[in-house]
Amino acid sequence: MSYLKEKILKDGVVINDSVLKVDSFLNHQIDPIVLREISNEFLNYFKEKEITKVMTIEASGIAPAILVASELNVPMLFAKKTEPSTLQNEKQFATDIHSYTKNITSRVIVSEEYLSADDKVLIIDDFLANGEAALGLIDLVRQGGGEVVGVGICVEKSFQPGRQKIIDAGVDVFSICRIASLENNTVHFVEE
Ligand code: G4P
Fold first, then answer.
1. Burial class (CB in 10 A: 0-12, 13-18, 19+), 96
2. Pairing of the two strands 104-111 and 19-21
3. How many angstroms does the Cα of residue 129 sit away from the middle of ligand 1?
């Protein structure tokens, strides 16, 4: 069993039937051993893809994404949820991402300067739920004319529709850990 799965079983907290708290090792405090394992698994799965850039969305995707980018020696680009003053006069790609969990729609942006038609982008995020964040990032890469070579997810909630939506968008998804259910206060992984 992967170390991430062990940590989820030991230290993850099931908040309700659809939310898992992983603040002690992934979302707030970060365990470097978990991160290194995650990074190695992504690198192993996507190693043939000639990746030119790793992309995520702030905030929790940044830690796993920077580790993967560092190993590949390529830049890591994160989409921003608010517009900093430094981007105000620059051309931007923008997309709307709806969060079902928070019931809000946010406009996320990246500078046009950092995405081009030559890019082969690996998207990384901590959680996959409804897939809106990943689809938004795919949209940003495609606005720039680049190719999304895959989506790498640390924790996929397989009982929610995110994976299928990404596949329907024509993109490969690799998740290190797939959760089948959080019912009865218990984490059940997808059998693989
Ligand atoms: P989606 O992107 O797959 O559609 O997911 P959704 O809107 O449902 O999730 C919104 C936020 O909540 C995302 O973070 C996502 O990573 C996080 N999230 C979703 N399900 C869970 C869960 O079961 N446990 C935890 N810990 N997080 C979950 P965000 O709003 O972008 O916040 P952050 O990246 O700044 O942390």
1. exposed
2. unpaired
3. 7
Residues of the chain with pLDDT under 50: none
- Name the closest-CA residue to atom 17, ligand 1: 127
d(C-alpha 134, C-alpha 61), whole Å: 11
Pairing label, strands 92-99, 147-157: unpaired
Please give the radius of gyration of the chain, using alpha carbons only, rounded to the nearest integer: 16
pTM of the model: 0.96
Ligand 1 neighbour 126 (Cβ under 6 A): yes
Residue 44: CB atoms within 10 Å: 9
Give pLDDT, residue 89. 87
pLDDT at 51: 98
* Ligand 1 binding pocket includes 64 (Cβ within 6 Å): no
Q: In whole angstroms, what is the distance from residue 110 CA to residue 179 CA?
A: 31
Helices (H), the chain: 3-11, 32-46, 62-72, 132-143, 162-168
Is residue 61 a contact partner of residue 124, using CB atoms and an 8 Å limit?
Answer: yes
Model confidence over 54-86: pLDDT tens digits? 999 999 999 999 999 999 999 999 999 998 899
